[in-house]
Predict the structure.
Amino acid sequence: MGPISPALQKPLTGTMRSDGKPLTLKEYEETGGYEALRTALGSMTPKEVQEAVSAARLRGRGGAGFFTGLKWSFVPLGDKAPHPKFLVANSDEMEPGSFKDRLLIERNPHQLIEGIIISAYAIEADTAYIFLRWEYGRAGAHLTAALGEAYGAGYLGRAIAGSRFGLDIRLHTSAGRYICGEETALLNALEGKRPVPRTKPPFPQSCGLWGKPTVVNNAETLSNVPHIIRNGADWYKRLSLTGDGGTKIYAVSGRVKRPGSWELPLGTTIREIIEEHAGGMREGHAVRAVIPGGGSTEFVLPEHFDTPMAFDIMEKQVGSRLGTGTMIVLDDGTCPVGAVHNLERFFARESCGWCTPCRDGLPWLASLLGDIEEGRGRREDLDVLEEHTRLIKMRHTYCALAPGAIEPLQSALAFFKRDFERHIEEKACPYRLCRRST
Amino acid sequence: MLTDDETRRIEEELRNYPERRAGCVEALKVIQQRRGWVADEHIADLAPMLGMTVHELDGVASFYPFIFRKPVGRHLIFVCEGLSCWVMGYEAVIEALTKRLGVSWGDTTKDGCFTLLPVSCMGECDRAPALKIDGDVYGDVSPETIETILERYT
């Protein structure tokens, strides 16, 4: 097999307009858009679509990295399956540092819509929801326009593209709160309930929206599906530098020369992303660490920047995670205690209050970190922080919010211990830029 | 009392959902669009339309930060407090804003023009620090550019 042509190296973003406007239906179709839909609905069974996505080794891009084909396979298919079934596109992107789904939706809304239709066909869903966060107003406007175009062209509604499959997509715009991105809280939100997580099992694939089989997939994950159907699993796997398939939208924010996002082969190293794509650090700043995959991942130090940003490898080699693939750079002039305080305030505020470790534990951590940052910390506070990294973990909580909040904290305590101690000893923040938080 | 126009718009929104209560956030938004916020009496009026108790609906309404249960000003300033914005100098921006407006979080200026609200993370991390006024997003904000931005809304 020869090298992949440049046009096919960036399937998600390569055809986007340079002026930032969304691709219209016509423009999307001119680049091969909705061809995959015709292929899937016209000549593949739902099971064959699932198998193609499994063979491509597509893993979830929302943070957890579950195999998409496997997730779909738990949905009952065929005449005896309960109906209606639902597919939900999770576009409630609110992980600190993440803005990749916004880019995909704003600039290529039909790609997401086509991905939703094919994925809904793969699980024989009747209705799909796009769960969009309130802050993404422009994305919402572009999606509304694109959905209108898709209905007009017969890609939505009954008998799509001459097939026997029909689907409606409804856009639901939320009203804030990080927890709504947790898949079972999201289902409660869609049902008009207070959006707290549900216990699992039962899993949404058997008992989801209104008790019916439901799949929740991230917007970036779904945007990959048309390309897999169009170009095949082998092509898709060759895009990646790892055993898992595809490209990844990576992003960098912080004191780098060119903050932004880029579609790159899955498994691109942290160093290449920061130095080549983000242009390295701004003059007068050096990198101290990165939060690699959104706010709920562990810090990674520069000595590990040659690690590929990929599933499993990040866990095995540096004890962190790929997460959402969107990095926040911590520079040498920024206080790590202040940074962790900022994150824990975020998680404490965004706790839904349903279970005690999160509702009571996170505000306590945020308060202790605030005290340390402002010079009122005591040595015993560090023991309390350490203790919580052991107490707040999966299976002690209903969902992953609080365990995720612990990830940056426990790595900060390990990597920046001396910074914590200096705050306590000097009764002040030793960093000029680390000022009292409002 | 909800107006006829509000009731009609709410009924239209509810048609998009298989159960009436599932449309509760959209229904609350209809009221908020027209009145700026959602008062207790409107929760009481709306709940029976959705087949919910008043407390169930208030439980949902009070959960969401962008359903306002108190009056707000003519323009809403949302300042992102995410880590990227914090790293890039959010604190100087918020200091300048609170000084210029003479209010703190959640408050409205005396002339009723601006309400200052935090957003946990706005997803504009590549343009940090970021803020949003009504529907307009501003990136790479600094204490120096605040005045020019605010002038557009006075």
Summary: Strands of chain B lie at 75-80, 114-119, 131-133, 136-138. Chain B is about 40% helix and 10% strand. The longest strand of chain B covers residues 75-80. The mean pLDDT of chain B is 96.
